[in-house]
Amino acid sequence: MLNRLDRIFIKIESTICVISFLAMVAVVVWSVLCRYFLEIKFIYAEELTRNLTVYAIFFGTSLAVKEKAHVGVEAFVNLLPESGRKNLQIVTDILTCIVYLGMLVLSISVMMNYSRTGQTTTLTKIPMTIAYFCVPAGMFLSVLHSLNQIVQEIKARKNNPGSEEAAK
Protein backbone atom coordinates (compact mmCIF):
# COMPACT_ATOMS: atom_id res chain seq x y z
CA MET A 1 0.00 0.00 0.00
CA LEU A 2 2.74 2.42 0.97
CA ASN A 3 4.73 1.66 -2.19
CA ARG A 4 1.66 2.14 -4.39
CA LEU A 5 0.92 5.48 -2.76
CA ASP A 6 4.59 6.39 -3.16
CA ARG A 7 4.45 5.68 -6.92
CA ILE A 8 1.34 7.87 -7.29
CA PHE A 9 3.04 10.75 -5.47
CA ILE A 10 6.17 10.36 -7.62
CA LYS A 11 4.09 10.71 -10.78
CA ILE A 12 2.41 13.82 -9.41
CA GLU A 13 5.72 15.33 -8.27
CA SER A 14 7.43 14.59 -11.57
CA THR A 15 4.58 16.10 -13.54
CA ILE A 16 4.56 19.26 -11.43
CA CYS A 17 8.35 19.61 -11.77
CA VAL A 18 8.25 19.20 -15.56
CA ILE A 19 5.29 21.55 -16.00
CA SER A 20 6.75 24.24 -13.75
CA PHE A 21 10.15 24.01 -15.46
CA LEU A 22 8.63 24.16 -18.96
CA ALA A 23 6.38 27.05 -17.93
CA MET A 24 9.38 28.85 -16.47
CA VAL A 25 11.29 28.46 -19.75
CA ALA A 26 8.25 29.64 -21.72
CA VAL A 27 7.85 32.74 -19.52
CA VAL A 28 11.53 33.66 -19.87
CA VAL A 29 11.52 33.11 -23.66
CA TRP A 30 8.32 35.15 -23.98
CA SER A 31 9.83 37.91 -21.86
CA VAL A 32 12.93 38.05 -24.07
CA LEU A 33 10.81 38.07 -27.23
CA CYS A 34 8.65 40.85 -25.84
CA ARG A 35 11.62 42.95 -24.81
CA TYR A 36 13.85 42.62 -27.87
CA PHE A 37 11.51 41.94 -30.78
CA LEU A 38 8.12 43.33 -29.84
CA GLU A 39 9.61 46.19 -27.82
CA ILE A 40 7.09 45.83 -25.02
CA LYS A 41 7.67 45.02 -21.39
CA PHE A 42 6.33 41.81 -19.91
CA ILE A 43 6.42 42.97 -16.31
CA TYR A 44 5.08 39.73 -14.85
CA ALA A 45 8.01 37.61 -16.04
CA GLU A 46 10.27 37.96 -13.00
CA GLU A 47 7.52 37.21 -10.50
CA LEU A 48 6.11 34.28 -12.48
CA THR A 49 9.58 32.84 -13.03
CA ARG A 50 10.40 33.11 -9.33
CA ASN A 51 7.19 31.36 -8.28
CA LEU A 52 7.64 28.61 -10.88
CA THR A 53 11.23 28.13 -9.70
CA VAL A 54 10.04 27.72 -6.11
CA TYR A 55 7.54 25.06 -7.24
CA ALA A 56 10.23 23.20 -9.21
CA ILE A 57 12.62 23.36 -6.26
CA PHE A 58 10.29 22.10 -3.55
CA PHE A 59 8.70 19.33 -5.58
CA GLY A 60 12.16 18.47 -6.91
CA THR A 61 13.41 18.30 -3.33
CA SER A 62 10.87 15.61 -2.49
CA LEU A 63 11.86 13.66 -5.61
CA ALA A 64 15.50 13.93 -4.57
CA VAL A 65 14.58 12.55 -1.14
CA LYS A 66 12.93 9.57 -2.83
CA GLU A 67 15.95 8.94 -5.05
CA LYS A 68 18.47 9.65 -2.26
CA ALA A 69 20.00 12.23 -4.57
CA HIS A 70 20.84 14.88 -1.99
CA VAL A 71 24.46 15.76 -1.45
CA GLY A 72 26.14 13.86 1.36
CA VAL A 73 29.61 13.53 2.81
CA GLU A 74 30.70 9.91 2.88
CA ALA A 75 34.37 10.26 3.75
CA PHE A 76 33.88 9.38 7.41
CA VAL A 77 30.98 7.01 6.79
CA ASN A 78 33.17 4.83 4.58
CA LEU A 79 35.59 4.34 7.48
CA LEU A 80 32.88 2.53 9.45
CA PRO A 81 32.20 -1.21 9.22
CA GLU A 82 29.16 -2.30 7.18
CA SER A 83 26.86 -2.60 10.20
CA GLY A 84 27.95 0.85 11.41
CA ARG A 85 27.16 2.33 7.99
CA LYS A 86 23.71 0.79 7.98
CA ASN A 87 22.98 1.98 11.51
CA LEU A 88 24.26 5.46 10.71
CA GLN A 89 22.11 5.52 7.55
CA ILE A 90 18.96 4.79 9.55
CA VAL A 91 19.87 7.41 12.18
CA THR A 92 20.63 9.96 9.43
CA ASP A 93 17.32 9.22 7.70
CA ILE A 94 15.42 9.64 10.96
CA LEU A 95 17.14 12.97 11.71
CA THR A 96 16.52 14.17 8.15
CA CYS A 97 12.86 13.20 8.44
CA ILE A 98 12.63 15.22 11.67
CA VAL A 99 14.08 18.25 9.87
CA TYR A 100 11.54 17.88 7.04
CA LEU A 101 8.79 17.52 9.62
CA GLY A 102 9.92 20.71 11.36
CA MET A 103 9.99 22.56 8.04
CA LEU A 104 6.51 21.21 7.29
CA VAL A 105 5.14 22.54 10.57
CA LEU A 106 6.78 25.95 10.06
CA SER A 107 5.61 26.22 6.45
CA ILE A 108 2.03 25.39 7.47
CA SER A 109 2.26 28.17 10.04
CA VAL A 110 3.42 30.61 7.36
CA MET A 111 0.64 29.47 5.01
CA MET A 112 -1.96 30.00 7.74
CA ASN A 113 -0.62 33.52 8.24
CA TYR A 114 -0.86 34.20 4.47
CA SER A 115 -4.39 32.86 4.47
CA ARG A 116 -5.40 34.93 7.48
CA THR A 117 -3.97 38.17 6.08
CA GLY A 118 -5.06 37.57 2.48
CA GLN A 119 -1.68 38.59 1.04
CA THR A 120 -1.17 38.47 -2.71
CA THR A 121 1.88 38.66 -4.94
CA THR A 122 2.89 42.14 -6.02
CA LEU A 123 2.18 42.17 -9.75
CA THR A 124 0.15 39.10 -10.62
CA LYS A 125 -2.05 39.34 -7.51
CA ILE A 126 -1.89 35.58 -7.03
CA PRO A 127 -2.77 34.70 -3.41
CA MET A 128 0.40 33.94 -1.48
CA THR A 129 -1.20 30.70 -0.30
CA ILE A 130 -1.17 29.49 -3.92
CA ALA A 131 2.24 30.97 -4.70
CA TYR A 132 3.90 29.16 -1.80
CA PHE A 133 1.65 26.11 -1.42
CA CYS A 134 4.56 24.09 -2.81
CA VAL A 135 6.61 24.55 0.37
CA PRO A 136 4.37 22.56 2.75
CA ALA A 137 3.42 20.17 -0.07
CA GLY A 138 7.07 19.48 -0.88
CA MET A 139 7.95 19.03 2.78
CA PHE A 140 4.96 16.73 3.32
CA LEU A 141 6.05 14.58 0.39
CA SER A 142 9.64 14.62 1.65
CA VAL A 143 8.44 13.36 5.04
CA LEU A 144 6.45 10.59 3.33
CA HIS A 145 9.41 9.53 1.17
CA SER A 146 11.71 9.65 4.20
CA LEU A 147 9.37 7.52 6.28
CA ASN A 148 9.04 5.04 3.43
CA GLN A 149 12.82 4.75 3.16
CA ILE A 150 13.20 4.26 6.92
CA VAL A 151 10.56 1.50 6.86
CA GLN A 152 12.26 -0.16 3.87
CA GLU A 153 15.68 -0.03 5.54
CA ILE A 154 14.34 -1.50 8.78
CA LYS A 155 12.53 -4.27 6.84
CA ALA A 156 15.73 -5.03 4.92
CA ARG A 157 17.67 -5.29 8.19
CA LYS A 158 15.08 -7.66 9.66
CA ASN A 159 14.98 -9.82 6.52
CA ASN A 160 18.76 -10.03 6.25
CA PRO A 161 20.06 -9.59 9.83
CA GLY A 162 23.44 -11.33 9.68
CA SER A 163 24.73 -10.43 6.23
CA GLU A 164 27.99 -9.00 7.62
CA GLU A 165 28.65 -11.89 9.98
CA ALA A 166 27.82 -14.44 7.26
CA ALA A 167 30.38 -12.84 4.94
CA LYS A 168 33.18 -13.34 7.51
What's this model, at a glance?
This protein is an all-alpha fold and 168 residues long. The chain has helices at 2-36, 45-67, 82-117, 128-131, 134-159, 163-167.
Describe it.
The protein has 168 residues and is mainly α. It has six helices and no strands. The C terminus is likely disordered.
Descriptive tags:
single chain; 168 residues; mainly alpha; 77% helix; elongated; disordered C terminus
Structural class: mainly alpha
Order of helices and strands: HHHHHH
What is the tally of helical segments?
6
Please tell me the overall pLDDT.
85
Instruction: Give a quick account of the main beta sheet: strands, pairing sense, barrel closure.
Output: none
| Model regions low in confidence, pLDDT < 50 over at least 5 residues | 164-168
Tell me which oligomeric state these chains represent.
Answer: single chain
Shape: elongated
- The CA-CA distance between the termini, in Å, is 37 Å
Approximate strand percentage: under 5%
Global Rg: 21 Å
Helical content band: over 70%
Number of strands: 0
Write the layout of secondary structure elements.
Blueprint lengths: L1 H35 L8 H23 L14 H36 L10 H4 L2 H26 L3 H5 L1
Helix pairs in contact: 1-2, 1-5, 2-5, 3-5
